[in-house]
Queue: 3 jobs
Job 1
Amino acid sequence: MHVIRDPAQFPFLGNAVVTSGTFDGVHVGHQRILARLREVAQASAAPAVVITYWPHPRLVLGPPPSHPELLDLQLLNTLDERIAKLAELGVDYLLIVPFTREFAQWTSEDYIQNLLLTTVGAKQLVIGYDHRFGKNREGGFDYLRQNADRYGLAVEEIPREDVDAVGVSSTRIRQALRQGDIATANRYLGYHYPLTGTVVHGRKLGRTIGYPTANLDVREPLKLVPARGIYAVWAVTAAGTRHPAMLSIGVRPTIGAELAQTIEVNLLDFNGDLYDQELTLEFVAWLRAEEKYNGLDALTAQLALDAQNTRAALA
Ligand SMILES: Cc1cc2nc3c(=O)[nH]c(=O)nc-3n(C[C@H](O)[C@H](O)[C@H](O)COP(=O)(O)O)c2cc1C
Ligand SMILES: Nc1ncnc2c1ncn2[C@@H]1O[C@H](COP(=O)(O)OP(=O)(O)O)[C@@H](O)[C@H]1O
């Protein structure tokens, strides 16, 4: 997949089959649109192109007036995760348009003329029934269909049934993760929710109780960290090896009062140094809520149970 981050650098294609959107999560609804994009592109022996935006439009424009609570935007994917997912799904060209206030002012006419026709060289569009574009989201499928001939564009709509059948939305997935409902989130995503960070130093207590825990520092500020709790995960090292692991997101009430939240993972089948390495966690199952135990022995006994439950969840 060719990744182009500056529209001025995009190689005009002339016969491109295009879809566009923010695609946060690249969930099963998005995957349907992308599968159709690839099908149409293959049938025309033409490149499949995705236009996406970064940063997320809501970060630039603020929350919709009707939903002020959406101000604290959290994202399912880092840009790198989104890029990797789109590449996996057979996209040939990814154009990442820097989303600015100025770009948000483009009319749907500007958007079609400048971006779709002049920059990308679109011939066919594949879009979800509810896709909106241009200033104030004024452009949509009906506008495109009415003007398709004038633009020399063929427009294919993914019907409402196909997108809604799965009942998925990025918002629903965010809600599920904030409640620790990994099963629902993963079902809607079509893959295990990932979280990547760098292993940093902690209090060196873990090793003294027989469960060293790699502490993860997540650098991407907007990445959604699931609810506090204990989870079964796969831990994938930068070298690509996968380890069954148990994860704690919490404030460790057994150890002390009012500690800062940490993300700590014990790899069940590993012994070695992970400091400064990048680690990706793939969430598989919620195990339990974080508890305050009566001392380290009680916590250690619980960790042995967590390890058993982790193996069962990952089996
Ligand atoms: C799977 C798992 C479950 C945990 N559950 C709890 C818990 O329920 N309550 C708690 O206070 N700490 C819990 N911890 C956190 C431990 O207290 C923590 O690993 C210990 O403080 C080691 O800290 P260190 O990495 O700074 O040395 C858990 C850790 C792991 C890996
Ligand atoms: N099975 C394992 N799971 C997690 N970390 C491990 C494991 N084996 C060794 N380590 C190493 O031990 C460190 C964690 O030990 P710990 O005593 O909890 O120290 P810290 O408080 O700095 O996290 C990890 O960062 C990693 O380098």
Job 2
Amino acid sequence: MQGDPSKEAEPILSVHDLQAHFRTERHGVKRAVKAVDGISFVVGRGEIYGLAGESSSGKTTLVKTIAGAVRPPLEVVGGRVDFAFLPGYGGLHCAPEAEVARIRWRHLSYIMQGSMNVLNPVRRLRSAFVDFAYPHIGESRRQFEQEVVAHLARLKLDPSVLEAYPHELSGGMRQRATIALATICRPDVILADEPTTALDVVVQKEVLALISAIRREIGSSVLLVSHDLGVHAHVTDRLGIMYAGRLIEEAATLEIFRHPLHPYARHLISSLPRIGDDVPRKALDGTPPNLADPPTGCRFHPRCPLAMEICRHEVPAMRENAPGHRVACFAVNRSGGA
Ligand SMILES: Nc1ncnc2c1ncn2[C@@H]1O[C@H](COP(=O)(O)OP(=O)(O)OP(=O)(O)O)[C@@H](O)[C@H]1O
């Protein structure tokens, strides 16, 4: 590895106290959906960091904000996002357009939910590669074409896919093509939002193996969003669990599977099906909160078996309970995580 070792140890992405709300108005009544509310974490170089949490916990909004895809009614109301390759702006949403164009695909790529969102349905795949990647590669068109074909082969795609329209490919092939597009410029960071959700189990495994291989080969860091803990168990190094717009626990993925601390994380892990174990799983009481009017204090307190008086009034901070294991829970942090 080349370069300044202190720089290599710096995180590639740091998110600090990020708050992104949807501000809406209906019949003259204004409301703010607090989809991302005070989230802080870092992603190291070459690391695959997972984000888990149930539907509507704010995962997609967090990734969109990090990607700079902030359009009304979404607004960043506080905090910052720092990339090692984009110092000083506090996030892509604050950077000038020229900087954003310089960074997209080359330093940062974003695999959105549903591969059709990136691929233009009325243009052949070749156009997508030329439009997105060619300006960054800085080679002759012929060399560029050769590089694209070699990269497709790495992802087990035949060069003929370049002549195809997106709807002519299977879901798995489309997702591979999207990953090829997102990785051809060897970006420092890949944001992947539910990259396997619409795929069958076999293709899902292939796509996850691909993401691991890409990380190994080109050294990219990956922020991978999935509601499916099985996906995280397969590929992520560290895992952050979100609940109602906040990060409530973070640790090495294996550590969370073995020793979940937050009552919500414990519930998620204990609900996972295990072969041969037919003990009925207990559902969590209550429903996820309305993020336009979330509970005061800890947002999980109305459903929490350990809730205490303080949980109703004060927001628990993320604290390191054991080395590398952070959790936001008064009950757990007071008892030392037992
Ligand atoms: N355009 C919008 N206007 C208002 N509220 C929105 C909008 N988009 C999302 N939300 C709300 O923001 C909250 C977080 O949604 P988000 O899609 O980020 O969650 P998620 O964890 O990614 O869920 P899923 O896994 O279902 O995509 C939800 O309460 C959702 O209803």
Job 3
Amino acid sequence: MPAALRICFLLNPTSGTNRRLDLPALLSQHLDANLVSYEVEETQYAGHAVELARAAAARGCRVVVAVGGDGTVNEVARGLLGTQAALGILPRGSGNGLARHLKVPMEIVAAIKHLNQPTFQRIDVGSINGREFFCTAGLGFDAHVSKCFAEAGTRGLATYAQVALREYRRFRPVPITVALADTTLETDCYVLAFANAAQYGNNAYIAPRADIQDGLLDLCLIDSMSVVRAVRVALSLALGDLPESGAAVFHTARQVQVEAARPLGFHVDGDYVGTSTHFSVELHPLALEVAV
Ligand SMILES: Nc1ncnc2c1ncn2[C@@H]1O[C@H](COP(=O)(O)OP(=O)(O)OP(=O)(O)O)[C@@H](O)[C@H]1O
């Protein structure tokens, strides 16, 4: 009989809106001991999952599963880059963008059962100013909202929508220069998103044509946001028809340089990082293995 698949589960106890989860009980109930051997660890602080994932890979775990949202997925995946271990996901965040893109079941029992015999494949990885992202990164309004959301105290889609609406009235675009391989754009930045996966999470499709294995980032640029355009963008995010809507301009690229006229906030996978006036964005083809 082949050796059981060795899996390490890394649980972020703070992720999502439903904090009660008896993970050990669910795993013993739904994982097949003939197929899988496993261990469970909890993160103690932000950033901890990077170290725990790297250590799990070093001691021979074949799959390291992020039990959390896109922030936890980002940390686990960063820890696994350059190792022999693959990333798994048990979605437990508020958005779960990468899990949704990779068609991981949103229901926890179904997602656990799926890990008895996962499919292994490789996906592209993006980086912005040296910080890796797996789903999306972005400049401008979406980064600003992720900063305000982190400060809001409560999580969930309702809080996110409230924060976005409030900040819409305050946020002003910043002039930027975007250098692509064959062209340079002089424009205003309300939002410039770099999409490896198609969605932000919650099935909000910022770049519905993004292919996570094509060696390219999909850029979505929105230069200004009138009320009419805001309504169009909100609808298109839900419908997945932003490219056809006329409300945004799309490009694909492997490498992008952005210069901003004044400091502009940026996020990776929905977590606010800080501000900069220079952004160096790259795509690293098939740099991460996933087990989904
Ligand atoms: N033990 C911990 N205590 C405090 N923060 C933690 C801990 N473990 C992880 N974190 C941080 O919590 C942040 C949020 O987690 P995560 O993104 O997984 O959940 P979420 O925000 O609810 O989901 P989503 O990103 O899908 O909206 C992560 O960026 C991570 O750094």
